[in-house]
Amino acid sequence: MSKSMPPHLILDWFARSQRDLPWRAPDISGWHVLISEIMLQQTPVSRVLGPWREWVERWPTPSAMARESSGEVVRAWGKLGYPRRAMRLHECAGIIAEQYDDVVPDDVDTLLSLPGIGDYTARAVACFAYGQSVPVVDTNVRRVIARAVDGREQPGSPAKRDLAAAERLLPRDPAGGYADTAPMFSAALMELGALVCTAREARCDVCPLESSCEWVRRGRPSHDGPVRKTQRYEGTDRQARGRLLDVLRNTTGPVEQSALDLAWERDPGQRARALDSLLVDGLVEVTDDGLFCLAGEG
């Protein structure tokens, strides 16, 4: 256990300060936690709350979602961004319904075998839905460890060693195994990075680790590596893809090419490239008579 990050300080802070998020309710299902984790990837909590509530009411089980077309799930995804996440979740729903009796698996290895489930999501579901004592590492966790343990303002590039670093911090019991508080500690560490030790502002005056933080001890040295640039969205292929998908989301059937042309007139070449990528990703399909529709709606 790292002496620079006393678990009880973080756990006590979490008990007082954690956000009241619906997917943290004690009776929440693994399926509902999985939906939240997929939605929260690269998307702020504030934008996820409404869609998450709508989805768990509409599709309370994997089989309920599996009965829908993938196009309908993409339509319901709306403006959350990166719609391939919705399509992969629909694939997961079908497999979970058919192979796992409509219950999301509780172990990391099985979760990793599902479509679109990466290392973070598998561990997050195992930990937050089923109380498994596994390290869960996202950008927030990496930042807290970089500052409190390593004394650096910003973490380096993501690497496998991040999991080992997080695992070393999990609380242990007297026999050397994981303490019962290990899953809660993982959630608390992530919450600390989201609310206090943020990328925009390190609120050291309210941080439970201020007295033991290595970065504070070193005088809060500035990051000496390259500054990560914020990706622009205006005018990008991503924006063009979104506009084309909007056309199809707002209709109940296939549309002609001309409807898509009107959605992105500034650059025909970019529009063609965006449409081709949507077809390659399987988000959009072409009907036998040359019309365009969301996947499964032809």
Automatic annotation (TrEMBL):
Protein name as annotated: Adenine DNA glycosylase
The protein's Enzyme Commission number: 3.2.2.31
CDD domains xrefs: ENDO3c
Source organism superkingdom: Bacteria
Reactions that this protein is recorded to catalyse: Hydrolyzes free adenine bases from 7,8-dihydro-8-oxoguanine:adenine mismatched double-stranded DNA, leaving an apurinic site
Keyword Metal-binding: yes
Enzyme class name: hydrolase
Domain HhH-GPD: 39-195
Source species of the chain: Gordonia hydrophobica
SMART domains (UniProt xref): ENDO3c (SM00478), FES (SM00525)
Protein family (similarity comment): Belongs to the Nth/MutY family.
Cited InterPro entries: DNA_glycosylase, Endonuclease3_FeS-loop_motif, HhH-GPD_domain, HhH_base_excis_C, HhH_motif, MIG/MutY
Cofactor list: [4Fe-4S] cluster
UniProt keyword annotations, A-Z: DNA damage, DNA repair, Glycosidase, Hydrolase, Iron, Iron-sulfur, Metal-binding
